[in-house]
Amino acid sequence: MRTLPMLLALTFAACQPAAPERIPGDMPRDGAPLETVNGKPVTQGMLDALLGTIPEATRKQLEEAGQIDRVKEELITTDALYQEALAKNLHKDAKVQTQLLMAERTVLVNHLVRTEVEARTTDEAMKKWYDEHLVQFRNEQVQAAHILLKTEEEAKAVKAELDGGADFGAVAAAKSQDTKTAPTGGVIGWLGKRELPPTLSQPLYAAEKGAVLDPIQSPSGWHVFKVMDKREVVPFEETKDQIKGKMQSEIAEAYVKEIVEKSKAPAGATVTPAADGAAAPAAPAAPAAPTTPAH
């Protein structure tokens, strides 16, 4: 009688339905249909899921460039090829299965590193990096505005008008031939000393803040410049994007080194996390925006 429970258990197990086959690349076909491929819809939900895997900055560039339709067409094309691969049972080939497994590992590893890097790239950490590398951001600059005119006579007349108390921005908006800067009162922005020819840099950098210079000729015409401001160091807020890129590369390398060392440490040993920016083996490259089709 002792064998009865075992027999019942085996019989019950035999009656259970087999687990469905896992098909690689399968994803829900939710949302409004965009196209039908081999009788199956390629949907808005699939497109949204794909766009959700693309970095925000890249996605914004695609939207601004009107390239979302191109992504949609790529999704449709890839879905047709994906279905053809399944029809040929390529997903059951041993080598293909190994490649799929390695691709899954790569996605997981890249996501791990990216998540850790984002968590460590705080404003506080970036400000510390900025302070430690301040020499890189020392760059003598002037913030200039100008009024561009066709002739020297016109430039001298404008200079006299400004010397008489006329508002620089108003005169620039009314008379400057530079259509890009005229609407903003002639403001050009910050100019580095190394970015300008000596004929412009020397008088601009010799002038005091607020000074309006005598007319200066360039290939574009005659300029009446005003020195709006001066500085010797580019401020932190204007360098954050640049710092973030440099820091994230350093943090990724340090994190990979930290994980590798921890994996090789004896059981119970403590591995001190690597300092941000420490040298280490190269981190895995971030994956390209995926175009995983659906079944």
**Widest sheet, order of strands:** 4-3-6-5
Order of helices and strands: HEEHHHHHEHHEHEEH
Main sheet characteristics: 4 strands, antiparallel
Q: Estimate the helix proportion, in percent.
A: 40-55%
Overall geometry comes to elongated
What is the radius of gyration?
32 Å
Given helix and strand content, the structural type is alpha+beta
Q: What features would you describe in this structure?
A:
The longest helix has 27 residues, at 94-120. The protein has 295 residues and is an alpha+beta fold. It has helices at 3-15, 44-52, 56-64, 68-87, 94-120, 123-132, 152-163, 168-175, 198-206, 240-264, and strands at residues 33-37, 40-43, 138-149, 187-192, 216-218, 221-233. Helix 5 (94-120) packs across helix 10 and helix 6 (123-132) crosses helix 10. A hairpin with a 2-residue loop joins strand 5 (216-218) and strand 6 (221-233). It is built from 10 helices and 6 strands; from the N terminus they run αββαααααβααβαββα. The strands form 2 sheets. It has a 4-stranded antiparallel β-sheet with strand order 4-3-6-5, sandwiched between helices. The protein is elongated.
